[in-house]
Input
Amino acid sequence: MGEHVPGSMDIRAQEKTFAGFIKAITWGSVIVALILIIMALADA
Output
């Protein structure tokens, strides 16, 4: 094993996973908000 050099690790996979997670959370929040709005309008 060689010595660890800070900043030398390839983190492209982690960045891609994180971007996907943020995208999923954003879309999920939008969908939940729309469902709540539709439910509120249906009750009116």
In short: The longest helix spans residues 12-43.
